[in-house]
UniProtKB/TrEMBL annotation:
One of its GO terms (molecular function) is glutaminase activity. This is Glutaminase. Substrate binds at residues 63, 113, 159, 166, 190, 242, 260. The lineage of its organism: Bacteria, Pseudomonadati, Pseudomonadota, Alphaproteobacteria, Hyphomicrobiales. Its EC number is 3.5.1.2. NCBIfam families: Gln_ase (TIGR03814), PRK00971.1-1 (NF002132), PRK00971.1-2 (NF002133). GO terms for biological process: glutamate biosynthetic process; L-glutamine catabolic process.
Length: 308
């Protein structure tokens, strides 16, 4: 199996479909991104990286940051996190508020916005917002083995001005005492984590610890225990694509996490970490071409966790 050929073929076959889907426009800065782009990177646990297309163009990782902040929060408070956020798929959109009232301000999982905002509140404990953002950025430098990663302040400010639903979610949960810090502090951190810029190669490297039992094979550094890596992967499989999670498992069969910037991080446990990026989103807010590309990749490599 030649992974470089597979990546090149996918880029070539998707060429006629570039621009499919709809770029997220509720964050004005993201609406400016050219939709006719597609990139793919595959980083294997034996230390090789393959990439094709626009794999070195930086994009806003948005909700993919939820995986990394969850990793940080688990490191801080361990299992106590599950008192404040659940582990079940939500069956609703990423920014839905409907379940929160029935479920007393405890979000369904850490990968919908409400759950991610609770996770950010946990990482913020004992810090000023600026320090929490710094901690997140240093963690990303560490796991991606790349000190050049940076946050796009314009994207963060753009969402700060227009993130009305996230303010509603956070205030609602604060009413249930499941947000412990001032809402503008928590969301200040959340909008900055979402505004981290990465390219497919960097993102595939950052996800390697999830593919390799918690240890980044490029650096040899342990990020989490094998058990924790397995559990994060399980949650990515069941909850990583909001109400498109079942369909992603059906089509691709890999743990994955999407973002409205158009990126998807996917993990083939024991084999590889992959990143795809194309700005256009489908009706569930997940990257349209990115899902198709991962479907092709999983089919051609046989990497689905369900085998075959
Ligand atoms: N699905 C996403 O990527 C959503 C992240 C975005 N920052 C938001 O909160 O709306």
């Amino acid at each position: 199996m030649n992974l470089q050929t597979i990546a090149d073929d996918i880029v070539r076959e998707l060429q006629p479909r570039l621009g499919e889907g709809k770029v997220a426009d509720y964050i004005p800065e993201l609406a400016k991104v050219d939709p006719n782009q597609f990139g793919i990177a595959i980083a294997t646990v034996d230390g090789k990286t393959y990439h094709a297309g626009d794999a070195e163009t930086h994009f806003s990782i948005q909700s993919i940051s939820k995986v990394f902040m969850l990793t940080l929060a688990l490191g801080k408070v361990g299992e106590a996190i599950w008192k404040r956020v659940g582990r079940e798929p939500s069956g609703s959109s990423f920014n839905s508020i409907v379940q929160l009232e029935h479920e007393h301000g405890i979000p369904r999982n850490p990968f919908i916005n409400a759950g991610a905002i609770v996770v950010t509140d946990i990482v913020l404990a004992g810090h000023a917002p600026r320090e929490a953002i710094g901690e997140f950025l240093r963690f990303m430098h560490f796991i991606a083995n790349d000190e050049t990663l940076s946050i796009d302040e314009k994207v963060a400010q753009s969402e700060q001005r227009t993130g009305f639903r996230n303010f509603a979610l956070a205030n609602f949960m604060r009413g249930f005492r499941n947000i412990h810090h001032p809402v503008d502090h928590v969301l200040g951190v959340y909008f900055h984590q979402c505004a981290l810029m990465m390219n497919c190669v960097q993102l595939a490297h950052a996800g390697l610890y999830l593919a390799n039992h918690g240890t980044n094979p490029l650096t040899g550094f342990s990020v989490v225990s094998p058990r924790r890596a397995r559990r994060i992967n399980a949650m990515m499989l069941t909850c990583g694509h909001y109400d498109g999670s079942g369909d992603f498992a059906f089509r691709v069969g890999l743990p994955g996490k999407s973002g409205v910037g158009g990126g998807i991080l996917a993990v083939a446990p024991g084999k590889a970490s992959m990143a795809v990026w194309s700005p256009g989103l489908d009706a569930t807010g997940n990257p349209a071409l990115g899902s198709v590309a991962l479907e092709m990749l999983a089919a051609r490599t046989g990497w689905s966790v369900f085998a075959g």
